[in-house]
Amino acid sequence: MRATPRRGSQRGLALIVAMLIAALAAAVAVSVATAQSQWSTRVLHRRDQVQAQSIALAGIAWARQILEQDAAHAGAIDHLGEPWALPLPPTPVDSGDVEGRIVDAQSMLNVNNLASPAHAAFERGRLSRLFAVHGVPLASLASIVDWVDADDAAQEDGAEDAWYLRQAQPALAANAAATRVDELAYTRGMTATSMRRLAPFVTALPVDTPLNVNTASADVLAASLVNATPESVLALVASRARQPFASVADFRERAGVAIGDEAMYAVASHYFIVTVRARQGDTITRARALIARTGVTAAIVWQTIE
């Protein structure tokens, strides 16, 4: 007996349904496998992230230990020939590596000194010279003064609350010491280019701090010594490498020029900036900290990790 058209269509429909079910099963299997793979990747990434952060924080602890050991055993001066000043090169760890360095924060000019009743004028002078050499507008320095001082009287070319409130994103002047030098990016007239040019030479420390002449760069020393020539500054740096300055008086004598406010110079430091980069697998973590050393104890002032 010949099959009726109705039975043929039923068999065709059943075949189509079976094919759809098979395709659906395959799609579900692929979806489940993909989800499991993504979950596994996320778990592994999170594990690597946690491990990298732990290693970076261990790097900060390593820096504190080195600074404490230096204070206990290395004498009364801090210079670039000491162990703390040697960078930690990329060092293998399980499934990754870690590297870091300690920089003397007092090898740079402290912008918070601009609010010091006793030393603001001297600090402004050497920052002005530094700005001029590196092509940063002096008007930016006036804005920094207004940012870190406690009053609301605007400097010429500076900015206080009235100026910041008129901007597209209204704000207020800090009128307090900067916690980190990155805050200067918010001041009137400060550009990304200017910040990049100043980054190696300026810092923000919580109290008035003198410049450590044993660790300051040639550019910073040149900004401090009004009557020194570039050649004499380089000669001073070379002399320092052979024999670090034992005192401010030693620095003055070897500089051969007037150094100005002697209270704003030192041969030892209390503040250090630590940077650590840690990698686990494909995950990279960077940590940064300001460490204050008092006696033989080193404590974290602030710390960032990303």
A few lines on this structure:
The chain is of the alpha/beta class. It is 44% helix and 18% strand.
Key features of this structure:
306 residues; alpha/beta; 3 domains; two-stranded parallel ribbon; 44% helix
What would you say this structure looks like, in words?
The protein is α/β, with parallel strands linked by helices. It folds into three domains: 1-42; 56-111 and 201-306, GSPII I/J protein-like (Pantoate--beta-alanine Ligase, Chain: A,domain 2, 2-Layer Sandwich); 135-200, Ribonucleotide Reductase Protein R1, domain 1 (Orthogonal Bundle). It is built from eight helices and nine strands. The chain has helices at residues 5-73, 120-133, 138-148, 161-165, 192-198, 218-224, 230-242, 248-255; strands at 88-93, 96-104, 109-110, 202-203, 211-212, 265-266, 271-280, 283-294, 297-305. The strands form three sheets. The chain has a five-stranded antiparallel β-sheet, covered by helices on one side. The longest helix is centred in the first third of the chain and has 69 residues, at 5-73. It starts with a helix and ends with a strand. 35% of the residues are buried. Residues 27-37 have low confidence and may be disordered.
